[in-house]
Write a structure and sequence with these properties.
This protein is mainly beta. The chain is 7% helix and 52% strand. Strands 3-4-5-6-7-8-9-10-11-12-13-14-15-16-17-18 form a 16-stranded antiparallel beta barrel.
């Protein structure tokens, strides 16, 4: 037994030495051989905010928040087969955010299987790290990003993720993603119906280059002239209601992004979106609450020419309006500025918001909030 353990340890040590001897370590990537590799990364978003009437006694509140703490692991086993695994802070704990087996033979056709983002609108495909504004989630979200109890039970997905399969690719300047997922799996879904999701985008100018079917809302001028329009849609039969009276969920969004580097070195960015959700149920109080109605937002930013210290300033403005089929309308304006040191990998943000709109689509408290945030990735 001891000899076997010694041999096993010696073999493991030899294998590790061989891997290290043949590896190239750069930017968190370890090359095992000419084909196989593993890479590692991390991302943090943290903020401090002060909100009027936010304290229990009705006074002004001050809150420090660790919004995201992500660890990334990706790798390649063969030329066409890869994997990706990511974690994040979830309700005070840490859990699996993504776990994807990736078959990527070419640009036109690829397949991902596992836990991943369901194809949706740009702000959901951005994730929190690749948005233009700090508070981009103030319009209603699709089911996998708008679960009850903030997704704590995972009954319809978590943080925009769900278990399923996505086929994606590009044909020239046309990009597509089509997926089928578990979707809402509560008692209402007696038929065990799947959630179907799609995103179709056309790049009229330069083609956006992002991992998979993910997106960004600004490239800080590095991608040249961008004009992209996209439509996304999701549908699930028996995906809403109560166990007694089930119904379906359907929704679509149209989003657009325009970015133009100017001759003076500045960069103009304009983003907008329209969303329409429809809940088909007559149930009195559904177990899983979804927005029903219309919503939209528009953002504009200008990356100032030249540097100010180690970074560049990008002031912006964003307006959101949510119009539910029943209940009160809500809106919110965000005025802010990004201090961009290393693109999406390192930036500071200062923003002021005023209004009552939020990601649930329901009218919230009309509050003025000042937020300072820091974002870091490697």
């Amino acid at each position: 037994m001891q000899m076997n353990n010694f041999i096993g340890k010696s073999s493991l040590a030899g294998s590790l030495l061989l891997i290290c001897a043949n590896s190239v370590l750069a930017a968190g990537k370890i090359a095992i051989d000419d084909i196989r590799w593993v890479s590692f990364g991390a991302g943090i978003r943290t903020s401090v905010s002060s909100a009027g009437d936010g304290a229990p006694d009705g006074g002004r509140s001050t809150d420090f928040t660790l919004e995201n703490m992500r660890l990334y692991v990706s790798g390649q086993v063969t030329k066409d087969f890869k994997f990706y695994f990511g974690t994040d802070k979830m309700w005070g704990e840490y859990g699996v955010l993504d776990a994807i087996v990736q078959y990527e033979p070419g640009k036109a056709f690829n397949v991902w299987v596992g836990r991943m983002l369901t194809p949706a609108d740009r702000i959901e495909m951005n994730g929190p790290f690749y948005g233009l504004t700090w508070g981009q989630y103030t319009v209603p979200l699709f089911p996998s990003d708008n679960d009850i109890n903030n997704g704590a039970d995972g009954v319809a997905g978590t943080f925009g993720r769900d278990e399923g399969v996505t086929v994606w690719g590009s044909l020239g300047k046309f990009q597509y993603a089509l997926g089928a997922f578990d979707g809402y799996s509560g008692a209402e879904n007696q038929s065990d119906a799947l959630l179907y999701a799609t995103r179709l985008a056309y790049n009229f100018l330069n083609k956006e280059a992002n991992p998979g079917y993910y997106t960004s809302s600004t490239y800080y001028g590095k991608a040249g002239d961008i004009l992209t329009l996209a439509v996304s849609a999701q549908y699930q039969d028996d995906g809403y209601g109560t166990a007694v009276q089930e119904g379906s969920f359907g929704g679509y969004a149209i989003d657009g992004l325009f970015e133009k580097p100017l001759d003076n070195g500045g960069v103009l960015t304009v983003e907008g979106e329209y969303k329409s959700f429809e809940v088909d149920t007559n149930a009195p109080v559904p177990v899983f609450s979804m927005f029903d109605g219309e919503a939209y937002f528009a953002s504009a930013a200008y990356l100032l020419p030249g540097s100010h210290g180690p970074g560049r300033l990008q002031p912006y403005v964003r307006y959101t309006r949510n119009d539910p089929s029943s209940g009160d309308d809500s809106d919110l304006i965000e005025l802010g500025a990004n201090y961009v040191i290393s693109g999406h990998n390192l930036k500071l943000n200062l923003n002021f918001t005023s209004g009552d709109a939020n990601a649930s689509g329901a009218k919230g408290n009309d509050t003025d909030t000042l937020t300072f945030g820091v974002q870091f990735q490697i």
